[in-house]
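WARN retry 2 of 3 for item q-0093 after timeout on previous attempt; input resubmitted unchanged.
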Amino acid sequence: MDRTDHRHTHVLLLRGVNVGGRNRVPKAELAELAAEAGAEDATVHLNSGNVLCRIGERRPAAEVAAMLSRLILARLDVETPVHEATAAEIASLLDAWEASELAPTAGQVADGRFLPRQAHLVLLDSAPDPDDAARLMAEDVGQDRCLATGRGVWIRYAVDTRSSTLTLPRIERILGRSGTARNLNTVKVLAGRPDPKKDLPRMELRRD
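OK item q-0093 returned
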């Protein structure tokens, strides 16, 4: 796992970069562009577009995220939305996961019946309408399960993302919101609570 400063106040999350050789945004360039956009002490976790940083009160985080998106397009010719959140928001979403029925038991973790890559958080650009959130959770998605809470949607996959019908476009269509997904281990880092064990390989939420 990358060394990161867990005193960060904000995260900036890119969508769909460095996947299958497409939309390449190298870590070093991303950190530099984030700093140019107004993020302080920016570090990049893994190679999947996760910026941990500090953002002062004088500049809204949404402006920093929008500027970073424009800089990435101008300098790297990659078009990607950038979603921002405070570390406290991510921590609150992690708390909601841990308190929910979706969270695994200690026994499931210990014997390998649950792996962190089987859980993803979709961070939305804003909280959805409660009726839309209820409709999402009532969707027939086989053995997969989901929880809509605040700006997030937690998904626990019965198997993995590749076999799931609960794709990111489906979630966005039902909720009328844009989002980007990260697995459980990455969310822990974003929240400032990294797992002492090394992160498992990241699995992408299906986008078709």
